[in-house]
Amino acid sequence: MVSSDKSKKLQKDIDSALKQAEEVTEVVKKISEVKDSDDLKKIEGIEISEVAKKLLGTEVSAAVKEITKGLSLNTEGIEELRTKLVGRKSAITGVLRHIKDLDQIKKKIVGQKTNQIKSQFEQPTKQIISNFSSLKLEEKLKETAFDFTLPGKIPPIGNKHLVTQIIDEVAQIFVGLGYQVAEGPEVELDYYNFTALNTPADHPARSLQDTFYLEGVKDTENPEEAVLLRTHTSPVQIRVMEKRKPPLYIIAPGKAFRRDVADPSHTPMFHQIEGLAVDKDLSFGDLKGTLEVFVKQLFGEDRAVRFRPHFFPFTEPSAEVDVSCALCMGEGCRLCGSGWLEILGCGMVDPNVLEEVGVDSEEYGGFAFGMGVERIAVLKHGLDDIRRLYDNDVRFLEQF
Ligand SMILES: [Zn+2]
Known about the structure:
By secondary structure, the chain is of the alpha+beta class. It has 15 helices and nine strands. The chain has two domains: 4-144, no CATH class; 162-397, 2-Layer Sandwich (BirA Bifunctional Protein, domain 2), CATH 3.30.930. Bound molecules: zinc ion.
């Protein structure tokens, strides 16, 4: 039997537990109904509310977001809840502790009811705590750990620009023939760009090659001191010949500039590769043989090479070189018209040019050639507009 004091106390505990259970159920219910921020406002003030709702449900990732936003979840809040509901000092535990003192019938009813209440929120509470712990762990791992099992991020790896590829390819062929690669300044003196190359100030070729003069220097008293962007890579030949004695076999790849308006086949900045050979007993036959080997290596053994007489100011005789059209093999078609595609200019170096740099033109002869890199890109890859090379559109460039 239990005393009436004890009985009163038990009744109080049961009532309290029931009330608590109701509250918890109500809270859980409200929480589980939260769908938007307006709902959240309605349950403001209920501890652990929005986070508990998410933890009770399956929206774990949403809960993580809440946490990272610095919202209401904290370990103490959750632990407090658990203690209040099912902890040693909770009303429920108090009720259960007294069950042994009840008579058989009461023991059964009160026991059942209390266990029902207990299990009603014990499971969700455990779930809340378990979810919360794993979230905390995840959070901690995110902050501190590096997962070595994750696949690495592969940064996009670029490749050489088509212009660079062609320069490399051409250079490789000539290096194979015993040439050396030479370089020179892109900002050049008028003397090296024109005068030393047999193109004096009043020469008509200059008007064809009108270039970009650096401000304030074009009107200098001595035109040869004018500073300009080189119109071709030929000044490199002069600079090399000034410093080194023949025999010389060089190619000079690089940028050149002309006052052209950009169109599908012209850009104000473009690339050239020039070659120069200075040696004893060099003949036009050596020039022809060299360029035939070069063209066939670049375009293929089955392509024919043709030389056409032409004029250049610093070579005599001069010629333009054509390669047979790949489409019609020289028969003539819509692409090429005549069956031939022009690829470079060449000639025997004018003795005046050699004498200008102190090479004895009686003892030495030379030949030179020059080609446009963009032109080769057009011929090799069928480009319809060389401006595409400088649009910096990766979708275009990555095709080569
Ligand atoms: Zn053709």
